[in-house]
Amino acid sequence: MRASDALIFCAVFALLVACSAQPEAQKASGAETSAPVEVPSLQDFGGIGGDFALVDQHGASFELQSLRGQAAMLFFGYTYCPDICPVTLSKMGRVYQLLDERQQELTTLFVTVDPKRDTQEKLAEYLSYFAIDAIGLRGDKEEIDQVVRQYGAHYSLGEEQASYLVDHSTYTYLIDQQGKVRFLFRQSDGPELMAAVAEQLFAEKEKP
User: Global pTM?
Assistant: First the structure.
């Protein structure tokens, strides 16, 4: 493992440990008396989103429509991201814990905006650190730009050099079982809120 990858792994491991330790810490501090999370309603973002086709971290073709009947959390990022992306992926681990048996009904989609460095192999290695079965998606610049436009997102590459940062959108998109965007989570939203909003999709599905 390269030194840079080792640093990423260590940072991710620390985040995962912190997330898994949180419930016990809350119990010890009497968190059961804290106010419940106020859950906002699902919305209809008809102006953004839609089907697309890219390639996953295993080299297989992926189409969003293949997830019909399944909910998804989608966000844009890149594997060399120093903070936002690993934090979001770690939060998703906690979301799955909170969903418990419902977690099989939710898929995480990570769309890279840096395909030059995020090769198929790099995506697979990076996402394996998080153990949430996230699907990493890539394509050529034109294909990625099309998806970015569809979802009203943005990104800009830093100055081209050996190591550069990428400025990108931080929203996480909740996509329902019909492929429609139903909620936009901010980076500041916690996993408890994310899980509670997602559960509304499952409740909708069960309505007669």
Answer: 0.81
